[in-house]
Every structure is written in C-alpha cells, then in structure tokens.
C-alpha cells in the first residue's frame, strides 16, 4: 500500500520520530513522509511511534491508498527531498 504520514510532536520527541519514520518511508518535507509499505510494516511503525509520542500532545495522521497512481501530487515551490525510485 502507499501511504502519506504526517506527524506533529513535541520538541523533545521530534528527532526520535523523524529517525523512526525514515526507517520505513521517504522524507518529503518537515514531518511529512510517503512511500510504499506493507500492512505489517505500517503496523510496526505505528506501534513504535506510539511508544515515542505523548498521545495527550502529539498526533500522527496516515493517509493510505492501495496504489500511488490513485493520488495526484502537485508541488508548488521547492521540493525539499527528491525521491528517486531505483532498482
């Protein structure tokens, strides 16, 4: 499945959340990640994120689609991180 993950965490937890998300997805902008991921890996990512975050202050939003081709993506301005798909 293809996901876009967005998080908003307290200052002390941002670094840990960034590091965790980079293990699973491609960083595209501050606190925003995207990429192909299996359901099992997504479940693992969410489980680990819950250990880092404070549910009273932090949030994570996951948008998912069966395939990337079902999403239109338009970038205005500078793209912060170019995603290269290579084999």
Please describe the structure with a list of short key phrases separated by commas or semicolons.
29% helix; 2 helices; alpha+beta; four-stranded antiparallel sheet; 87 residues; Alpha-Beta Plaits; single chain
Q: Which helices and strands, and how do they pair?
A:
Layout: E1 2-8, H1 14-24, E2 26-29, E3 32-36, H2 39-52, E4 59-65
Helix pairs in contact: 1-2
Report on the structure:
This protein has helices at residues 14-24, 39-52; strands at residues 2-8, 26-29, 32-36, 59-65. By secondary structure, the chain is of the alpha+beta class. It has a single domain, classed as 2-Layer Sandwich (Alpha-Beta Plaits), CATH 3.30.70.240. It has a four-stranded antiparallel sheet, covered by helices on one side. It is globular and about 35 Å long. The mean pLDDT is 87.
Mean pLDDT: 87
For the record, the CATH architecture stands as 2-Layer Sandwich
Extract low-pLDDT stretches.
Answer: none
CATH fold call: Alpha-Beta Plaits
Radius of gyration: 13 Å
Shape assignment: globular
What is the C-level CATH assignment? Alpha Beta
Q: From the helix content, strand content and strand pairing, which structural class follows?
A: alpha+beta
- The H-and-E topology, N to C, reads as EHEEHE
- Helical segment count: 2
Portion of residues in beta strands equals 25-35%
Our measurement of the CA-to-CA distance between the termini, rounded to an integer number of angstroms, reads: 18 Å
Helix proportion range: 25-40%
Report strand order across the widest sheet: 2-3-1-4
């Amino acid at each position: 499945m293809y996901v876009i993950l967005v998080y908003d965490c307290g200052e002390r937890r941002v670094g840990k959340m960034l590091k965790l998300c980079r293990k699973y997805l491609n960083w595209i902008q501050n606190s925003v990640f995207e990429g192909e991921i299996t359901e099992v890996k997504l479940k693992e990512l969410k489980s680990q994120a819950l250990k880092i975050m404070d549910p009273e202050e932090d949030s994570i939003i996951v948008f998912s689609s069966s395939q990337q081709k079902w999403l239109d993506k338009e970038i205005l301005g500078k793209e912060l991180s170019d995603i290269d798909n290579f084999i």
